[in-house]
Amino acid sequence: MTAAEGVNQSAPREAIAQAVREDILAGRLAPGDRLREADLAERFGVSRVPIREALSQLQSEGFVTLVRYRGATVSATSGEAALELLQIRRGLEVLAAQLAAERAGGDVADELSRVVELGRSATLNHAHDELPPLILRFHSLVAEAAGNHQLRIMLSQVLSRVSWIFDQRLESRTGTSWSDHAAIAQAILSGSPVQAGYLMGEHIARDEALLAELDHG
């Protein structure tokens, strides 16, 4: 089934926004690409009204830029905006790691351990192209392990944008050692909230430093 075929006609805005968001995250739509209402309406088989609503939603999420009389384009994230987003991510993820450790990983403890092992194997085998989805999966699991539904929703949005930002700047995100993730997981699974929060904060601070180096290097 294509993204267009999967649009729910009773609530098309959300489905259209999700399909376009996925195209952006997957690199099928690049920063600066035009998003013409007429083309999208034809693709999804809807009027322009839900298209405008979807583009407005994507603008609020930072994926799309709307300019009066010029229409919509895929956003290009500035270095300053990216660092601001990482600062937000740090606060949310430190909290998520602490809550996850209080629950010792909760229902996803086994899956968290499995992802850590997959990442360790990929690192040892120099399979760096396998790491980006594992990194995203790891952080998504920490958010799930926290057991806070609203926190998980906020982190899902932030993590998608952070992954997209790094993909714009790196062919393969290898700047941060996988050992960071393994140490965070160990602190969570051993039920050490203070350590888990500290390690997560240090891990994301390294991402911030890497991004700053890329933007000024």
TrEMBL record:
GO terms for molecular function: DNA binding; DNA-binding transcription factor activity. This is GntR family transcriptional regulator. CDD domains: WHTH_GntR. InterPro entries: GntR_C, TF_FadR/GntR_C, Tscrpt_reg_HTH_GntR, WH-like_DNA-bd_sf, WH_DNA-bd_sf. Keywords: DNA-binding, Transcription, Transcription regulation. The keyword Transcription regulation applies. It comes from Prauserella cavernicola. Residues 10-77 form the HTH gntR-type domain. Signal peptide: none annotated.
